[in-house]
Amino acid sequence: MAANPMTQFEVYRIGPEIKIGSFDISFTNASLFMVISSLAILIIFNLGSKKNSLIPSKVQLLAELSYSFVSKMISDTAGSKAKPYFAFIFSLFMFVLFCNMFGMIPYTFTVTSHIIVTFVLASFIFIGVTIIGFIKHGFGYLKLFVPSGVPIVLLPLIIIIEIISYLSRPISLSVRLFANMMAGHTMMKVFGGFVISLGIVGGWLPLSFSVALTGLEILVAFLQAYVFAILTCIYLNDALNLHH
Q1: Helices (H), 103-152
Q2: Which of 135, 150, 173, 194 could disulfide-link to 122, CB 3.0 to 4.6 Å?
Q3: pLDDT tens digits for 89-104?
Q4: Which residues of the chain have pLDDT under 50?
Q5: Dihedral angle of Cα 174, 74, 220, 103, to the nearest 10 degrees
Q6: With 0-12 CB in 10 A as exposed, 13-18 as middle and 19+ as buried, what is 153?
Q7: pLDDT tens digits for 191-243?
């Protein structure tokens, strides 16, 4: 009997149970892979920046390319005013990317396949960007909900639509990442189960699909981290420049 493909998303406790009141804050497999992802990022960029040689090592090249990639992304989408927020967006992009990529390794855990993780990240971004918008523009930030050139008759309806669209940002941002990672890993597990159940003779077709799907999932893991970061830049652009 094939294993349930959803068991790979199970969160379980590692170590003793830790509770504060009714809240369980025990260390879990999800916590473990968030720590592993964070440590991997710190190690790679520490090694990459330790020796700035003229002919860069592979680790230094990776660090420099990552820096340039995120810097260009911020400049293209949010402009020069967003440069002070480079560290946050860079950290966000790398964290999501590493969590996605670690999830591609067999017998690991995909942190970003859980809506609670992606929703907390998206909510933090949403609240932070909203605060920045009000700090920069005061109540003038509310002009974001009043598009220019709209007839007065349609204005009340458009404002309601714009407010709903704005408030749905953390939901759309979190669901997009969570759904893509969960769906992809589920499909990989299903095809892997077919390979095992059909054996050597009949398993070549699902095996071919599994190999192709793995390559696609690696691409999706990168693209979802990129989309998450670039949408953050777009929201930040709205807050800083009040473009609509």
Answers
A1: 115-137
A2: 173
A3: 999 999 999 999 999 9
A4: 1
A5: -70
A6: exposed
A7: 777 666 766 666 677 777 778 888 889 999 999 999 999 999 999 999 998 76
Q: Are 178 and 115 in contact (CB under 8 A)?
A: yes
Instruction: Find, among 222, 192, 195, the residue nearest to 106 by Cα.
Output: 192
Q: Is 114 within 8 Å of 11 (Cβ atoms)?
A: yes
CB 226 within 8 A of CB 93: yes
Nearest CA to 96 out of 108, 75, 83, 113 is that of 113
- At residue 218, the pLDDT reads 92
What number of other Cβ atoms are within 10 A of residue 132's Cβ?
18
Cα–Cα nearest to 110, from 183, 161, 159: 183
Q: Show Cβ contacts of residue 230 under 8 Å, excluding neighbours closer than 6 positions.
A: 73, 77
Amino acid in the structure at residue 52: N
Write the single-letter amino acid at 133. Answer: G
Using DSSP, state whether 24 is helix, strand or coil.
Answer: strand
The full length of the chain comes to: 244
β-sheet bridge partners, residue 23:
20
Phi, psi of 127 (to 5 degrees): -65, -45
Which among 224, 1, 228 is positioned nearest to 104, based on CA atoms? 224
> How much is the pLDDT for 203?
65
Calculate the CA 199 to chain-centre distance: 36
Which of 179, 181, 208 is CA-nearest to residue 194?
Answer: 208
In degrees, rounded to 5, the angle at the alpha carbon of residue 237 between the alpha carbons of residues 217 and 38 is 45
Angle at 85 (CA atoms; ends 79, 87), nearest 5 degrees: 125
Alpha-carbon gap, residue 191 to 237, rounded angstroms: 42
